[in-house]
């Protein structure tokens, strides 16, 4: 299902609008929390619904290993398996090509399971099938994410394989249309461009992926070791060649400064483990920056995590209480801070929508960068 973005307003290159899928409507720009194993860590589906989260990301690599995509398919897909009424996007396993260093050939990637050491071979075709079985609303084509810094030959090979795999993955997705129809699944597939921080390679990769023809487009292989100053020109080079009428998704980016800069370039969608990982390690996101709840300064602090935040946690519990839980290793601390961090980052992106509609994006950008840059 080809996705279109219906623009409501623009402010420079920043844009706000809606994406309509078979499941419903997504307002953009938006941030999606990462639910690697069919759950956002420490939260359940009801928590996410109460926070108004519209879309979460599931990890194809982990879910194909445990509990297995065939089992999830028997339950009716991820939505029924986890009793989640919102949207689900599944990555392809491409990030694991970067993070787990499998054996990669032109055919695909061979991994060792992080659970039991068993060997698994992932191809563009099997990635498409697995994500059909997972039942995501949006699936990603398998790509090759090169670490940064990498030499020119490594990045060029990653671009070449990403394009070749995109053609195979798209063909496989189209061939699975009958399977999806039989299972009542209306699904979209996004292509991914690569190219490291080489602007010409980024542009070439974007053009090649668009030529394949996908339902939406993503920029991968950034925020993997480069600085923000290196990332932004490469991002801009790719965006220049992606269709303005379709969604643009920057993968794996979740720090406030990078989000606002990317929104300013025309990105619509983001995902990252940052808010949940920070929460588990006791780091709080707030309107005045991030801070460590373990600090003694909060021992007797009766203020909420962020006095300007309207999340359920800030409406009820103090910094002193959450610090107490965190110092003792109580799981409730991670849960409460995760609720807050996810709500805070989601609201920051929602506020950017309002700023774009009101023509004050540059002012909002400056305020965020003053704190987070």
Characterise the protein shown here:
The protein is of the alpha/beta class and 373 residues long. It has 2 domains: 5-272, TIM Barrel; 279-367, no CATH class. The protein is 43% helix and 18% strand. It has 15 helices and 16 strands. The strands form 4 sheets. An 8-stranded parallel beta sheet has the order 4-14-13-12-11-10-6-5.
List keywords for this structure.
373 residues, alpha/beta, TIM Barrel, 2 domains
Concise overview:
The protein has 373 residues and is an alpha/beta fold.
| Terminal residue distance | 38 Å
In CATH, what is the class of the largest domain?
Answer: Alpha Beta
Query: Roughly what fraction of the amino acids lie in strands?
Result: 15-25%
| CATH topology label of the largest domain | TIM Barrel
Helix content class = 40-55%
Topology readout:
Elements: E1 5-11, E2 14-20, E3 25-28, E4 30-33, H1 45-51, E5 55-58, H2 60-65, H3 69-74, H4 78-81, E6 87-90, H5 94-99, E7 103-104, E8 109-112, E9 119-122, H6 124-134, E10 138-140, H7 152-175, H8 177-182, E11 188-193, H9 199-212, E12 216-219, H10 228-239, E13 248-250, H11 256-265, E14 269-272, H12 274-280, E15 283-286, E16 289-292, H13 319-327, H14 331-357, H15 361-372
Parallel strand pairs: 4-14, 5-6, 6-10, 10-11, 11-12, 12-13, 13-14
Antiparallel strand pairs: 1-2, 2-3, 7-8, 8-9, 15-16
Helix pairs in contact: 6-7, 7-9, 9-10, 10-11, 11-14, 11-15, 12-14, 13-14, 14-15
């Amino acid at each position: 299902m080809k996705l279109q973005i219906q623009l409501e307003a623009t402010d420079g290159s920043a844009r706000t609008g809606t994406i309509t899928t078979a499941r419903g409507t997504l307002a953009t720009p938006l941030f999606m929390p990462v639910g690697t194993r069919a759950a956002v860590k420490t939260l359940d589906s009801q928590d996410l619904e109460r926070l108004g989260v519209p879309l979460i990301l599931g990890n194809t690599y982990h879910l194909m290993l445990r509990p297995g995509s065939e089992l999830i398919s028997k339950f009716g897909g991820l939505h029924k398996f986890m009793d989640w009424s919102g949207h689900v996007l599944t990555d392809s396993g491409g990030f694991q090509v970067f993070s787990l260093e499998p054996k990669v050939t032109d055919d695909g990637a061979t991994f060792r399971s992080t659970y039991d050491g068993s060997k698994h071979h992932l191809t563009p075709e099997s990635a498409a099938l697995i994500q059909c079985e997972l039942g995501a609303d949006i699936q990603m084509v398998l790509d090759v994410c090169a670490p940064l810094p990498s030499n020119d030959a490594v990045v060029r090979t990653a671009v070449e394989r990403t394009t070749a795999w995109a053609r195979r993955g798209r063909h496989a997705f189209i061939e699975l249309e009958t399977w999806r129809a039989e299972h009542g699944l209306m699904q979209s597939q996004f292509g991914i461009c690569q190219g490291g921080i080489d602007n010409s390679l980024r542009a070439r990769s974007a053009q090649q992926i668009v030529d394949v023809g996908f339902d939406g487009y993503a920029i991968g292989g950034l925020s993997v070791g480069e600085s923000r100053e290196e990332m932004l020109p490469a991002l801009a080079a790719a965006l220049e060649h992606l269709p303005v009428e379709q969604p643009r998704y920057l993968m794996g980016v979740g720090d406030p400064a990078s989000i606002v800069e990317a929104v300013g370039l025309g990105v619509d969608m983001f995902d990252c483990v940052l808010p949940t990982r920070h929460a588990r390690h006791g780091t709080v996101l707030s309107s005045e920056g991030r801070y460590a709840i373990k600090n003694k300064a909060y021992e007797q602090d009766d203020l909420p995590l962020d006095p300007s935040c309207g999340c359920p946690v800030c409406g009820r519990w103090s910094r002193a209480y959450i610090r107490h839980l965190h110092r003792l290793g109580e799981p409730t601390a991670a849960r409460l801070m995760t609720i807050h961090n996810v709500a805070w980052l989601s609201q920051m992106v929602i506020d950017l929508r309002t700023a774009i509609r009101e023509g004050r994006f540059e002012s909002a950008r400056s305020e965020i960068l003053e704190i987070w840059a």
